[in-house]
Amino acid sequence: MSKITVLKTAAAFGVALGATQSLAADTPYDLIRPVYPMEWSTAAVEDGGTVYDFANFTVNEKDTVVGTPKSGSKPADFKANAYIADTLNQAFIDALNLKVSNIRVNQAGYLPDDPEKLFYYVSDKCESATYSVVDLEGEEVAAGGKFTAFGKTDQTVRVVKAYVNSLDKRYTVEKTAPEAKVCAGNLAELAALPTDKRLRIKVGKEYSSTFIVSDKVYSMVRDANLKFFGVQRSGDSESWFHGPSHVHDSIPGGWYDAGDFLKVAPTMGYTFLVLSVLSAVHPERDEDHYAFNHNEIVKTDGIPDMLREARHGAEFYLRSYEYAKGEIKDMIVNIGDSRDHEYWNRADNMESMNPVPPRPVMHGIGPGMSAQVAAGLALLSVRYATYDKAFADSCLKVAEKLYAYAKEHFGEEEVCDETLYACGVQKPYDVLALAAIVLHYATYEKSKKMDYLNDAAEDKTINDNNNAKYSFEYFPAGWLGADRGFTSGGWTSDYDNRFAITLYAFYKLLLADKETAAKYGIKDSVRIDYTERLVNSLVRNVSNDLGNGDDEHVDLPGSHYEFRYDKPWFVTNHFNWHPNRYETGTILNLLIYAEVAKSAEIRQLAINKMNYILGANQWDICFMTGVGDKNEAHVHNRTANPEGWNGMTVDEYLNYKDFLASYSYRPPVGALMGGSMTDSLISDWVIYTATETYIDANATFLAANVLLSPEKSAADTSKKDTTKADSTKEAIVEIAKIGEARLAVVNNGVTLDVNYTLPTEQNVKISLVSVKGKVQKLYAPGRESAGSHALQWNVESIPAGAYIVNYSAGSLHQHKLVTITR
Question: How many helices (H) and strands (E) does the chain have?
Answer without folding.
Answer: 17, 25
